[in-house]
Amino acid sequence: MVTDFVTYLSFDGRCEEAFKRYEKVFKGKILMMMRHSDAPFGSGVPQDSETANRIMHARLEVGGRLLMGGDIVTDEFGTPWMVNCEKPIG
User: Fold this and answer.
1) Kind of pairing, strands 65-71 and 7-11?
2) Domain definitions of the chain by residue range
3) CA distance readout (Å), 70 to 1, 3, 29, 77, 88
């Protein structure tokens, strides 16, 4: 049974700025902020000069709840994409 939903926000290069602002405004705590350049080599995460400094995943806790986000990656057509690899529940 699902007891809570976690909001995931997508940004175009301004995730770090936004999450630092949210941390102050909502009096939360950034638990994690991982850049594309932090991913292991060969993991398939884009790490060129345009994406290396972008945030791959950020997590902010506010009052026991989570807000997550990252800078979106687009394909050659400008289409954002994200892959969820979780197993089905049940």
Assistant:
1) parallel
2) 7-65
3) 27, 24, 16, 19, 23
